[in-house]
Design a protein that fits this description.
about 110 residues, mainly alpha, 6 helices
């Protein structure tokens, strides 16, 4: 049935919007590795401790995948997608402003979720 539905301007715009949202989310997570030296220096951490930044983001991804998936079944994909992208933006901004490492880890968890 989906093969019979024509792709118009709306479908291409929706495809591009969703693609940009997911791309921005992924790039934000991947660029964290380039920030490790600055994070290490800012909070006075060793390599093992700074690696928790990446780990906690991946834990957030696992929790977020299940949580957002269940929510989208009940609330609809549009609202959940916009909420997910908004949470990623807000937590990414918060992680840039965090004064302590535990708060930074909490923000990174939110970016993953």
């Amino acid at each position: 049935a989906l093969d019979l539905v024509p792709w118009g301007r709306f479908q291409w715009l929706l495809f591009a919007t969703c693609g940009l949202g997911y791309t921005a989310d992924t790039i934000e997570l991947l660029l964290l590795s380039f920030a490790f030296p600055g994070i290490r220096e800012e909070f006075g951490l060793d390599n093992h401790s700074v690696s928790w930044s990446s780990t906690i983001s991946n834990v957030g991804i696992m929790v977020g995948a299940v949580g957002w998936g269940l929510l989208s079944d009940h609330m609809g994909r549009r609202l959940v997608f916009l909420s997910s992208v908004s949470l990623t933006f807000a937590c990414g901004l918060l992680s840039a402003l965090c004064p302590t490492f535990p708060l930074f880890l909490a923000a990174r968890f939110g970016v993953g979720a």
